[in-house]
Amino acid sequence: MRSYTIGQAARLLGVSPDTARRWADAGRIRTHRDDSGKRLIDGRDLAAFSVTLAEEAGVEDTDGPYTSVRNAFPGIITAVKLGDVAAQVEIQAGPHRLVSLLTREAVEELGFEVGMEAIARVKSTNVHIDRA
Q1: Using an 8 Å Cβ cutoff, are 16 and 10 in contact?
Q2: Coil/strand/helix, residue 46
C-alpha cells in the first residue's frame, strides 16, 4: 500500500503541511517513519481520515481551498466496489465526495485501490478518474 508524506497528505486534504503535521502530532492521523526517519501516512489511514474530515466540515462548508480547475478534482480513493462487469470508485477531494461508475476492467487496469491518489475529471454528468 502506498504511503504519503505529510506534505503530500496536506495537498490531498487541502490544508497546509503545518496543519497536517499538527494533526499527526495530536494523534488525529497515525504516522510511521521510513528508514530515513521521514514521517509517512498509510494510504488507507489517509483515505479514512479524509472522509472524517469532510464529515466534520459538513456539506455547507464552501470556504475550503479546493476549486474546479478545468473540472479536475485531485483527491484520494476512499472506496472501490467491484461487480462482475461494472465498478464504483469513490474519491474524497477536500470537502467533495465524487463517485464514478466505470467498468471493472478499467479499475483493474488502472490498479485503483483505497488510499491511492487520483484525479476525478467531471464532464457534464460523467465523472472520469485518472490515475495520478
Answers
A1: yes
A2: helix
Residue 71, C-alpha cell as written in the block: 473540472
Low-confidence ranges of the chain (pLDDT < 50): 59-65, 67-69
CA 47 to chain centroid, in Å, comes to: 6
Q: Where are the beta strands (DSSP E) in 15-125?
A: 32-33, 39-42, 72-82, 86-93, 96-103, 117-123
CA atoms within 13 A on the CB side of 30: 6
Kindly report the pTM of this predicted structure.
0.62
pLDDT computed for residue 111 by the predictor: 95
How far CA 39 is from CA of 5, 35, 116, in Å, comes to 6, 10, 18
Using an 8 Å Cβ cutoff, are 83 and 104 in contact?
yes
